[in-house]
Design brief:
11 helices; disordered N terminus
Length: 481
Amino acid sequence: MAVAPSKCSSSSSVSPLSECTVFPESPSIPLAYKLTVSDLPMLSCQYIQKGVLLPRPPVSPDALLSLLKNALSRTLVHFPLLAGRLRTDADGYVYVDSDGSGVPFVHAAAPGLKVGDVLAPQDVPEVVRGFFAMDGAVSFEGHFRPLAAVQVTELADGVFVGATVNHSLLDGTSFWNFFNTWAEIARGCTEISRPPDSNRFFVKDSAAVLRFDAGAPGKGLAPPKVAAPPLRERIFSFSRRAVVELKESANQWKGAMGEEADMVEVLGKASNDAWKGSGKGRNGTAEAPATEVSSFQSLCSQIWRSVTRARRLPATTKTTTFRMAVNCRHRLSPRMHAEYFGNAIQSVPATVEVAELLRQEVGWAAWLLHQGVAEHWDAAIRGRVEEWERAPRVFPLGNPDGAAITMGSSSRFPMYDNDFGWGRPVAIRSGRANKFDGKMSAFPGRDGAGSVDVEMCLAADTMTRLERDPEFMQYVTLPQN
């Protein structure tokens, strides 16, 4: 493993101590991989920032750093694109050059901070933002900045391992495969369990390009700096029992409502008709879509109604939208490789009038979300790609009308499998990136068995009213004192 030293700056209660660059253990053949129609819209997004809070390792700091650096170096052999850079050619096509430029590795310390200080507060403490390198980086900047960086922060009684990765390079599925592989190799595994598929091809080799200002490439991609209400960030925990109760209620509603439930199916299909295109039907030869509302869709419907009520929107004039990120790997026909390395997600929205959402029961909203996902198979995915090609654009982050919710990540991601050799994570946390009023991320609960944690970013007054909503809070597991 080779490293190159560099300087680093100070940061509030988290103090960077050193920084080096980690390179792949063995050089790969330099190759150029063209960004796909699913990668390009992410150039406007900030880098993904996720990490794990771990107990104190039974080794010295020097031994810990050596272990993690060497494991990362070996991991990059399997994920060489993370050590590359972006490049745009004369025709406007964007590529990832796997040139072995390396990944920054930051060692930081917060000796006055304990694991309990990260977990105990009701809101996620501000100090967590200091656990991640390259804070504020936008994915287009991968043309002149590293595509990934890691930071290891020593706490008084634990350690936080965080990764920051360019979003135009990968989605959550690929991010956690990289993280899991890093942990696997650190544990001493000689063969990785889920080798990534780096054949970057999503639906088609598109001729569409994103056009940027020639004099200022990337201008306008950074999130606009506008006045926004103070945000609060809190993680709500939902036990398996609570999630199952919501699911049973939603599916019982479908059976009891008859014709009105059928109308929900019509609404759900109508919201997805624009994306159906001219493919071979909904799912080709892939598996049939689920015929009942899932646990997660049921939980999302309760969140949608409760947050919308807490926002106190003008019900006569406002509509509200709930967007869910859908993994397309198994929905295309033929299926993509389960470990396809790249972006293979699309956002599936459901939009209704505020008054209707609040008038109906949770089951009504759950079936609306279900129909949007149930209809999003091969033809719908290809139709969305064709529509994007007609007007290439970056992904619109934010919540301009104050009525939207965007749910990202997944409670199915194996986040708690990241045992680097001295125990499972105590918690999962994310950085500042890509957050705004209404942005939410789903994590698995630490106890597994179907429990779910949802990280919510909301306007402070909305969060306060949500916490006082008995319909919502009855499903929340409060931390034990």
